[in-house]
UniProtKB/TrEMBL annotation:
Signal peptide: none annotated. Gene3D superfamilies: EF-hand. The lineage of its organism: Eukaryota, Metazoa, Chordata, Craniata, Vertebrata. This is EF-hand calcium binding domain 10. PANTHER family: EF-HAND CALCIUM-BINDING DOMAIN-CONTAINING PROTEIN 10. Pfam families: EF_EFCAB10_C (PF24548). It comes from Lynx canadensis. InterPro entries: DD_EFCAB10 (IPR049760), EF-hand-dom_pair (IPR011992), EF_EFCAB10_C (IPR056587), EF_hand_dom (IPR002048), EFC10 (IPR039879). Residues 64-99 form the EF-hand domain. GO terms for molecular function: calcium ion binding.
Length: 132
């Protein structure tokens, strides 16, 4: 029984070290966000663009561009205040696959602006792809 527990822990450690679950969550989220006609081909092209960027040293290929981030923010900002709540912010990051299940965000009591939302989405996407 000990060997099984050890193998499971090794598997968890491997997935965590290489941030595989974050990558899969992100890929799933972008797939659902864009809903391409041919999902398998879309996922292959995303991974291929990432591989090329990594091999050539080109910039990280953002799949959520500025207009996508703005659209998502505006859907949450229904009153057009220019801010969203912390709960909306946290749920958006989860929806995008950019927040792990065990990660705890600290609520500073301030509403989240579009600029903060955009910076955080971009930063988290870069972290996931850098680990890949």
């Amino acid at each position: 029984m000990q060997a099984r527990g050890s193998r499971e822990q090794e598997a968890r450690d491997y997935l965590e070290e290489h941030r595989i679950m974050e990558l899969l969550n992100y890929l799933t989220s972008t797939l659902l966000f864009f809903r391409p006609e041919k999902p398998r081909e879309y996922l292959i092209s995303v991974l291929e663009r990432l591989r090329i960027a990594k091999m050539t040293g080109l910039a990280f290929p953002f799949f959520m561009d500025h207009s996508n981030i703005v659209s998502m923010f505006e859907m949450m900002d229904t009153s057009n205040k220019g801010t969203i709540s912390f709960v909306q912010y946290r749920e958006a990051l989860k929806t995008l696959g950019l927040l792990t299940a065990d990660e705890v965000l600290k609520d500073d009591g301030h509403a989240v602006t579009l600029d903060k939302f955009r910076r955080e989405v971009n930063k988290r996407m870069e972290e996931i792809w850098a680990a890949f």
